[in-house]
Write a structure and sequence with these properties.
heterotrimer; A alpha+beta (about 450); B mainly alpha (about 300); C mainly alpha (about 280); A: about 450 residues; alpha+beta; D-Maltodextrin-Binding Protein, domain 2; 2 domains; 5-stranded mixed beta sheet; about 45% helix; about 15% strand; globular; C: about 280 residues; mainly alpha; MetI-like fold; 15 helices; about 75% helix; flat
């Protein structure tokens, strides 16, 4: 009997430790028609902003915050580094359950649906509507990415896209026009064949093309193929119930990639993105695809003139196709007092001002969210220094705006991305045919979506 | 068997000595473990809040899943590649370092230096070494005419690459523990053995190994547990790939808990891993500790 | 190896001694190579690191990376925090682990085996399973952004307890019997005999406890929200670009963070040797 009592005590302690069950319980996600605090609410004197920017970018964050704090006397923003994007989201998740969230959190692109389902967000739209904040000169592609049911849950902050980088010297060496990068799959293959160089012993000393295995690239390739990644308008018209990339377009991407590798003119650096960047700088891969955030790294560290081109697309260049933006956005957290939310909005407005955006571009290499930023001095100086940068912006501006190019919204996006990487690996290693690999990946991701949707009704 | 007064008294004395550590463990380990077990029986929302009772669903899903089976294989391979080699290498180096020589401390520090390096930092350095086109490792191999493998790209090689990194990371601890063990061997024992005519290899197997067997056993248990819990080097080198070749159970738990936010399922995985390691450790105590020679 | 005999033999054989040194030097460099490479990279520019064949020594050594580390993160403060937290953890672990290991080696009581396994089982629980509830505990105690929040969950160590148990089991039982006959109390035997005889093992526990606390990343990140309470590994993470890895910068940070621990290792080893001598004399 005594044993029983002890056991019961133990269990009750455990139950207490599990306690509460955290926020939310009912249905739905972020209430997109939530109201912002009234204009008369006095902003809090101090708010905290969690960010995931490292190295030079974290310096840029601190610089922006210092400038804001100096620009007025009412609000002090404290920017706190919280690890990688993944770390930040884990920490935010933990903090949410115990009301220790910051006023503003920077969350990466694919965390969108997670934030929605957490029901912990005060949508940015509430403030935009209240103050009639003008977003008409914002890059449409960026706005569309973060809009859900035509409303902004968060404010886009740092935006990038994926482009083709190439070695102009290598182009000249093999008689290719260094001002004309390849634009289609076949052209990339054809150029890569020419650019591949072997030494006397038959070892390849330079590959034509070396994309790392990164799920983001596959998503981009689906989008430039004018294809959906997930159903229900990429999860934008309604919650996605399955992913749909196991079609001819998905197969074409994998087959093209695999053929290049088998032919010996593509290189496979694995999932190691920094490794593939270094390989490009060292002249080991004459072309590769990466984020625009790499621009400065390559221009500063490569010993050859660096060219940039549009992200390669299928040979028929589908009219509906275009690139999806990447990066992160700022969320105002619902659990904070109205005064803090008010202060957070004040800071977000500052961060969106043209001059701040131009300075941010110059400090980091992300492109400005709004077009008027390009008229500011820091942006102009940057454009003169890195003319290649226009490629990224043009690419985004030329993309038709539709569900395919808006990009997918998925609760299990991290998992789906990891699963596509596994899919690509299994094809490149010859463990499965492209169709088998696509089907297996889709089946597994769909299973995860099912479970997620059931648990997060 | 009934508890006598004396039993209770001696238990009481024992508990007094154990109390400080036990208190910390109860608060920071056992209660959380209870929560994990509880969560493993529920479906959870992204925030970790429970949404509906799942019963044993997660466990059934887990034990029938292909990913979990391949995770077991990866974990097993990883342990087999890492633990024995790490301990043997540690013993060889510790014996080499257990000499009274001028400046021996310099060598000891250099060889044990990996203990001072965090797994994150160590893994970053190895990432650079393994890089297929630029890495120093393959460059050095190519100088002697060997074409190095694509370390982190071929599944069978990737698990070896992660193992090499892990052996390197644990080498420092292994050397220190074994050095402490070797230095605990009284000199008279060697003197006596030498008088009996023991030399070299015979001295090593007959005297050194049995005398450090408590340290060896300690490392066997601790290194096995550590390998089954290894996370950082996998996260930085391979993220569980290629094609799940390095997705050990504990890495799978990380992905499910902190990337996929499926706390219920991840909790079930944690409970299963815990049970596995516990059984393994009990086996080690049952069958290996018998051979350990305590003075 | 017998030290006296070894000395005599090595004096007799100078060639053998040279050979021993050569072997030691070669193996040491091999083992420490990744670390030495990190040191070398910390003096290279990014473009030099990206050249092929891979450079081993910097052609034009530069201190730029160190300068940039100092400009990017308050490394002095991080080092201080890490030292305070690690030292507190070491002291706590030495106390709790010696007491527990003593119970598991010299005291005889029913349930000892079971309790020992209970201790060991704490090593087997995946960190993912405990980290969130522990965060909740620390938060409800109001210990976020405090040294106690960083240190208290680690004041007990199954690893250290197990290691000390192994060491204590090596102490001849005759000493225990003799002490009992002399009328020494249980605690006095621990304090006067067991602890002094186990200095090498205690040293190992201390070094290990220090370094594993010093090298923590996720826990300090979770329970601190102020930059001023952050620790070294969080600082290193901040130097790492998510997208572009700047090797030179990261390695400079690594060296600055690892230098004090390496120094500690040198000192700690001397302690191990001294501990041994003391033990040998008394034993």
């Amino acid at each position: 009997m005594r044993k029983f009592a002890a056991l019961a005590l133990g269990l009750s302690m455990v139950a207490a430790a599990c306690g509460g069950g955290g926020p939310g319980g009912g249905g739905g996600g972020t209430d997109l028609s939530a109201q912002a605090p009234g204009k008369d609410v006095k902003p809090a004197a101090k708010i905290v902003w969690w960010h995931a920017m490292t190295g030079l970018n974290s310096d840029a964050v601190n610089k922006m915050v210092a400038a804001y704090n100096k620009s007025q006397n009412n609000i002090t923003v404290e920017a706190v580094f919280q690890g990688t994007y993944d770390d930040l989201l884990s920490k935010l998740n933990t903090a949410l359950a115990s009301n220790a969230a910051p006023a503003i959190a920077q969350v990466f692109d694919i965390g969108q649906r997670y934030m929605y389902d957490s029901k912990e967000v005060l949508p940015m739209q509430a403030f935009i509507d209240r103050d009639k904040f003008d977003t008409s000169d914002f890059e449409p592609a960026v706005l569309n990415y973060y809009k859900y049911q035509d409303k902004l849950q968060s404010m886009p902050f740092n935006a990038s896209s994926s482009i083709l980088y190439y070695n102009k010297d290598a182009f000249k060496e093999v008689g290719l026009d260094p001002e004309k990068p390849p634009t289609t799959f076949s052209e990339v293959t054809e150029y890569a064949k020419k650019l591949t160089k072997k030494d006397a012993s038959g070892q390849t000393v330079r590959y034509g093309f070396g994309p790392s295995i990164y799920g983001w690239f596959f998503e981009q390739w689906m989008a430039v193929s004018g294809q959906l990644y997930a159903d229900n308008g990429n999860g934008r018209d309604d919650r996605a119930t399955k992913v749909v990339y196991n079609n001819a377009a998905g197969k074409a991407i994998l087959d093209w990639w695999k053929a290049g590798l088998d032919g010996g003119y593509f290189n496979n650096p694995g999932i190691d993105n920094p490794g593939s960047q270094n390989a490009f700088n060292a002249g080991k891969n004459a072309m590769y695809v990466e984020s625009t955030a790499q621009m400065r790294n390559h221009i500063n560290n490569a010993k050859f003139p660096v060219g940039t081109g549009f992200f390669p697309r299928p040979d028929n260049k589908p009219k509906d196709g275009g690139n999806i933006i990447g990066g992160a956005s700022l969320y105002i957290m619902k659990s904070r007092p109205p005064a803090e939310q008010q202060a957070a909005w004040e800071f977000v407005k500052y961060a969106m001002s043209p001059l701040t955006q131009a300075q941010w571009q110059a400090d980091t290499g992300y492109y400005p969210i709004r077009k008027s930023a390009y008229n500011e001095a820091p942006s102009k100086e940057w454009a003169t220094k890195y003319p290649q940068f226009l490629t990224a912006v043009n690419q985004i501006r030329e993309a038709p705006q539709n569900r395919m190019t808006n990009g997918a919204v998925l609760g299990v996006f991290s998992q789906a991305r990891a699963r596509t990487q596994k899919m690509i690996e299994s094809v490149l290693l010859g463990q499965a045919t492209s169709q088998q690999a696509l089907d297996a990946a889709v089946a597994e991701v769909n299973d995860a979506i099912d479970k997620y949707n059931k648990a997060n009704k | 068997m009934r508890w006598t007064r004396r039993d209770l008294r001696s238990l009481g004395v024992g508990l007094v000595y154990l109390a400080p550590a036990l208190f910390i463990f109860v608060v920071f380990v056992f209660i959380p473990l209870g929560r994990t077990f509880y969560l493993s029986l529920f479906h959870t929302r992204v925030t970790g809040a429970t949404s509906s009772f799942a019963g044993l669903d997660h466990y059934i899903d887990l034990l029938t899943s292909e990913t979990f089976r391949s995770g077991l294989t990866a974990t097993g391979l990883f342990a087999v590649y890492t633990v024995p080699i790490g301990i043997i290498l540690g013993l060889v180096l510790a014996v080499l370092l257990n000499q009274r020589l001028r400046a021996i401390n310099v060598f000891r520090t250099m060889m044990a230096s990996t203990i001072a390096i965090s797994a994150a930092v160590g893994a970053l350095i190895w990432l650079l070494l393994f890089s297929p086109s630029l890495g120093l490792l393959n460059y050095v191999l190519s100088l002697v005419g060997i074409r190095g493998p694509e370390w982190l790209i071929q599944p069978t090689i990737a698990i070896i690459a992660v193992s090499i990194t892990t052996i390197w990371l644990t080498l420092g601890t292994n050397i220190i523990v074994l050095l402490a063990g070797l230095q605990g061997i009284p000199e008279e024992i060697y003197e006596a053995a030498r008088l009996d005519g023991a030399r070299g290899a015979r001295m090593f197997t007959r005297i050194t190994v049995p005398m450090v067997s408590p340290s060896l056993f300690f490392l066997l248990v601790v290194d096995t547990i550590a390998v089954l819990q290894a996370f950082t080097q996998i996260h930085l080198l391979t993220r569980g790939g290629p094609v799940d070749a390095t997705r050990t159970i504990v890495y799978g738990i990380y992905l499910d808990a902190f990337q996929n936010f499926q706390f219920g399922f991840a909790s079930a995985e944690s409970v299963v891993l815990f049970t596995l390691v516990l059984v393994l450790t009990i086996i080690q105590f049952r069958f290996v500790e018998r051979r350990v020679h305590y003075q | 190896m017998s030290t006296v005999a070894m000395q005599q033999r090595t004096q007799r054989l100078p060639y053998r001694k040279a050979g021993t040194y050569l072997t030691l030097a070669l193996v040491s460099v091999l083992v420490a190579f990744p670390l030495l490479l990190a040191l070398s990279y910390s003096f290279m520019s990014e473009s030099e690191i990206a050249t092929f064949p891979p450079p081993v020594l910097p052609a034009r050594p530069t201190f730029d990376n160190y300068g940039r580390v100092l400009a990017t993160i308050p490394i002095g403060r991080y080092l201080l925090n890490s030292f305070v937290v690690s030292s507190v953890v070491v002291i706590g672990q030495l106390v709790t682990a010696s007491l527990a290991a003593y119970a598991f080696s010299f005291l005889v009581f029913r349930g000892r085996q079971l309790l020992f396994f209970l201790f060991l089982s704490t090593l087997m629980i995946p960190w993912e399973a405990t980290i969130i509830p522990n965060y909740m505990t620390i938060r409800s105690l109001g210990w976020l952004d405090t040294y106690q929040g960083l240190a208290v969950p680690f004041l007990a160590t199954a690893f250290g307890t197990f290691l000390l148990r192994q060491a204590f089991l090596q102490i001849p039982r005759e000493l225990w019997d003799a002490a009992r006959i002399d009328g020494a109390t249980t605690f006095r035997f621990l304090r006067d005999v067991v602890i002094p005889l186990s200095r090498p093992a205690l040293g190992t526990v201390a070094i290990y406890g220090f370094l594993s606390t010093y090298n923590q990343y996720f826990w300090p990140l979770l329970v601190t929200n102020q930059t001023l309470m952050r620790t070294t590994q969080v600082g290193i993470a901040q130097l790492r670009f998510e997208e572009t890895l700047r090797w030179g910068l990261v390695m400079a940070g690594v060296i600055m963070v690892a230098a004090p621990t390496l120094a500690l290792l040198v000192l700690g080893q001397r302690q191990l040797i001294r501990g041994l001598t003391a033990g040998a004399v008394k034993g």
